[in-house]
Amino acid sequence: MSPAIVWFRRDLRTRDLPTLTAAAAAGGAVLGLFVLDEALLRPSGPARREVLYATLAALDEELGGRLCVVRGDPRVVVPQVAKEIGADAVHVSADFGPYGRDRDEAVAREVDLVRTGSPYAVAPGRVTKADGGSYRVFTPYFGRWLDHGWRVPADTTASTVAWLDPALPIRVPIPRAGSTSRWEAGERAALARWTEFRDNDLAHYDATRDRPDLDATSRMSVYLKYGCIHPRTMLADLAGRPDAGPAAFRRQLAWRDFYADVLHHRPDSARRNYDPRFDAMRYDSGPDAETAWSAWCAGRTGYPIVDAGMRQLLAEGWMHNRVRMIVASFLVKDLHLPWWRGARYFMRHLIDGDLASNQHGWQWTAGSGTDAAPYFRVFNPISQGQKFDPDGDYVRRWVPELRAIAGARVHTLDDGRPLGYPDPIVDHGVERMEALARYGELKRG
Ligand code: FAD
């Protein structure tokens, strides 16, 4: 019986993996394959690469040291490996991103590519309006998403199949994560983190999810990014839980599916305004704009919550959702710089960097995306800090210069700025009016 290949991509796990069921059904031995593809590695900074390598090492362990890792263009190396071992099928979870779709079409011309399942609870393209069209507003999408439902978790483990030893001449060693990696990687860590969150913080998630100081969100985004856990595994645990915490969490998982659906229907929106009226938006450029950009990147804008967020990003490769919205709004509406610059910077530094959620999170904030936030909504970085970090703990955690300032005064700095902490690089009141004027020009056409 010919062997088959399970080509791992965004599904770096063995539990609840329908591709394993499909590969096992063929009855032959299975080679577990991962391709280090420079086209996907290039936009990642060192932190996300480290998480990937650590995750691959964990998967290799699950497979008893039998994960075959090769480097190169998958269009070339996947057919090459298939030929080398005489595989008659290559099993994958479907990829709906613009790059992944093109890549898979090319590979499918060379090998029998069998797509089973996807990284989403409900795959892109499945939730449609009555007339068959796609949604551009989340709330009605969410209603249909709930009605559509999702599979029950698949009953798979590494022992579902007989793994082939990857004794291939082209195999490359798995790069080991460096000592700086603070992330517990892999599917066991993902399940442990989920269980911890489910048992401790889920019940009050609705009340605490907007509070960066409490750090009470799941932090599952990194595990979801690499598919160390499938969302349906979590959704199964939420079944029969109509209370506010689980309901709010279910809704957030639906946002992830929604943005993947939007990107599927509009692949151009990864780079361009979803709403083409925004193509006429005026942005700042020149030396002052570059100085402002550098201050934003380094967390030295003089606005404490913005600086705390940007420093958390550099230190942890992660940022709380509320703070992502605040820093994104500041870049676009206070500094008048284009959303795609911020999005690219996030994709470089975030360990959960996900094209669909990131580009559309940015476009939502800029007002050019789906569910467009009303253009007149310009986040005030001081009152956002007072509201969502009411005792100032989040700011003090990430901005050491401000640690001696007690309570919420850390947001207003009423008694002056400590030595070494910058003055505000812009006046929020002035820039808010400027942003409104520019949005007004778009509205008038
Ligand atoms: P939780 O609050 O515990 O939520 C659980 C899960 O729901 C998350 O892991 C995520 O998969 C999903 N989710 C929650 N909120 C959103 C949302 N607004 N959009 C899409 N999915 C959501 N998320 C990413 O995974 N990758 C990104 O690159 C990314 N970039 C973003 C950029 C901006 C400007 C904004 C405003 C949001 C971005 N998000 C991104 C969404 C959100 O900030 C993160 O998913 C969330 O902060 C991850 O932390 P968590 O796992 O603790 O979230």
In short:
The chain has 445 residues and is mainly alpha-helical.
Distance between the termini: 65 Å
What is the mean predicted local confidence, pLDDT? 94
Pick out the low-confidence regions. none
**How many structural domains in the coordinates?**
3
Annotated CATH architecture of the largest domain? Orthogonal Bundle
Annotation, overall tally of beta strands: 5
Strand order of the largest sheet: 3-2-1-4-5
Structural class: mainly alpha
The helicity comes to 40-55%
Order of helices and strands: EHEHHEHEHEHHHHHHHHHHHHHHH
Radius of gyration from CA coordinates: 23 Å
CATH superfamily of the largest domain: DNA Cyclobutane Dipyrimidine Photolyase, subunit A, domain 3
Number of helical regions: 20
CATH topology of the largest domain: DNA Cyclobutane Dipyrimidine Photolyase, subunit A, domain 3
Largest sheet properties: 5 strands, parallel
Shape field? globular
Sheet-strand content, in percent, reads: 5-15%
* Structure ligands: flavin-adenine dinucleotide
Q: Determine and state the CATH class of the largest domain.
A: Mainly Alpha
Family: Belongs to the DNA photolyase family.
Keywords: Chromophore, FAD, Flavoprotein, Lyase
Cofactor: FAD
Pfam families: DNA_photolyase, FAD_binding_7
How would you describe the overall organization of this protein?
About 50% of the residues lie in helices and about 5% in strands. The longest helix is centred in the middle third of the chain and has 22 residues, at about 245-265. It is mostly helical and about 450 residues long. α1 links the parallel β1 and β2. It has three domains: about 5-120, Rossmann fold, CATH 3.40.50; about 120-155 and about 185-265, Serine Threonine Protein Phosphatase 5, Tetratricopeptide repeat, CATH 1.25.40.80; about 275-445, Orthogonal Bundle (DNA Cyclobutane Dipyrimidine Photolyase, subunit A, domain 3). A five-stranded parallel beta sheet has the order 3-2-1-4-5, sandwiched between helices. Flavin-adenine dinucleotide binds near residues 328, 354, 362 and 365. The site of flavin-adenine dinucleotide (FAD) has 27 residues, from α9, α11, α14 and α16. One of its GO terms (molecular function) is deoxyribodipyrimidine photo-lyase activity.
